[in-house]
């Protein structure tokens, strides 16, 4: 159900309906279940930061450095938004346009089940959130550094890093917070029904 509307944009929190197929023999929670996804979750964003810090030492072409960094940031944005978040922590956010031309922002979280605790990898969760939070913070630091050191030509590159990685951070925080809100509302509704049922039972004549 739509939970927020602002300038013709709707946002909704729903359960992830196409969770990955899981085998009957599941590894332990502490092991990394998706090593390839975990690698690429960090590879593109860390590579973009390394290229930004070291590119002037190996190349005098600003255009080549800028294109390389933006390409890495774009690959990171797509991979984190569409692949690693879904596989590593069961979260996903996306946007779609309905038949009326209205834009809907959807924040999804995988439904918790009796076997969900067996499938969630604590190591993958730590890797995901550490990379998701730390790298945008570094790009914000780079933005202030470029501004105060008058490296104006790098501001566009740094702002691109802040925007792309900040968007993923915001989207996944909304997924996480939204799923907790749904659980809270469900618990509140259940307790309310139980209270009303008990009150009605007490009021009935014996």
What would you note in describing this structure?
The protein has 206 residues and is of the alpha+beta class. 65% of the residues lie in helices and 14% in strands. The chain has a four-stranded mixed β-sheet with strand order 1-2-4-3. A hairpin with a 5-residue loop joins strand 3 and strand 4. The two termini are 42 Å apart. The N terminus is likely disordered.
Structural class: alpha+beta
Shape: elongated
How many β-strand runs?
4
Number of helical segments with 4 or more residues: 5
Low-confidence stretches: 1-8, 17-28
Whole-angstrom Rg: 22 Å
What is the topology, as strand order, of the major beta sheet? Answer: 1-2-4-3
The major pleated sheet works out as: 4 strands, mixed
N-C termini distance: 42 Å
Protein name: Golgi apparatus membrane protein TVP23 homolog
Keywords: Membrane, Transmembrane, Transmembrane helix
Biased composition (Acidic residues): 8-22
Subcellular location: Membrane
């Amino acid at each position: 159900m739509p939970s927020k509307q602002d300038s013709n944009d709707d946002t909704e929190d729903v359960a992830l309906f196409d969770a990955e197929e899981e085998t009957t023999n599941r590894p332990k929670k502490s092991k990394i279940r998706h090593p390839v996804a975990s690698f690429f979750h960090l590879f593109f964003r860390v590579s973009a930061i390394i290229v930004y810090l070291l590119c002037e030492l190996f190349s005098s072409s600003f255009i080549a450095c800028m294109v390389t960094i933006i390409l890495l940031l774009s690959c990171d944005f797509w991979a984190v938004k569409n692949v690693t978040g879904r596989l590593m922590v069961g979260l996903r956010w996306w946007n779609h346009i309905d038949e009326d031309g209205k834009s809907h922002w959807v924040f999804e979280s995988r439904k918790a089940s009796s076997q969900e605790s067996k499938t969630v990898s604590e190591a993958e969760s730590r890797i995901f959130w550490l990379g998701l939070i730390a790298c945008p913070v570094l790009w914000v630091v780079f933005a202030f550094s470029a501004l105060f050191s008058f490296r104006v030509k790098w501001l566009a590159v740094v702002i691109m890093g802040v925007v792309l990685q900040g968007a993923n951070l915001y989207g996944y925080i909304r997924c996480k917070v939204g799923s907790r809100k749904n659980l809270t509302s469900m618990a509140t509704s259940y307790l309310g029904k139980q209270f009303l049922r008990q009150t009605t039972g007490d009021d009935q004549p014996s």
